[in-house]
Input
Amino acid sequence: MAKGDPEAAQRWAAVRRALRQLPAHAVILAEDECRLDLLACVRATWIPRGQRQRVWTPGQSQRRSLFGALDIRTGAWWERVTCRANSREFIAFLEQLAAGGPTAPAIAVVLDNVIIHSSHAVQVWLAAHPRVHLLYGARSCPHANPVERAWGALKRDLANSAPPTMAGCLRQATCSCNHTRPDDFLQLAAPETAPWMPHQLRQDLCKAA
Output
């Protein structure tokens, strides 16, 4: 099990302080990545009583990466499917997020500390796009990211159907995300429970819910 971050309290306090200093009508996003594997993972799933579950094992596994971001106020969802998660693909996702809020005075993205989020290439891109702010949370605290709960629901859906091809897996994953309503995303992700949420913003989200 992850040991957590001994400086978690200070890191979350810094994120809350940065969020309070954002201008009015700023967009606040929670961001994370997950991996989709073709071969089924060992996990619990539903099965009709008295029947055996057939699990496809097509031989060599395949893997894709999925970037996801959730607007904690509106429940709007952004995603990007890539062959691998690296700094170049992360920058492309940031450009997608920036294009999604062209009139927002600022776009704050709360995310974890993996190297692709803070590489030199990312820092160069941020210097050229001052509207976008990356707010790094505590280390080894996946429970603090609302997007993790969206990934959990997505992987449960995939485990219950086990598509036999990577194309089918990606199609089901994107359909599952695209057909989830913003209100359902907010209920599932529960961003108001995140430890980096400022008190006033948490109250506003609870009232909206």
About this structure: The chain has one domain: 8-39+60-208. The first helix runs from residue 8 to 20.
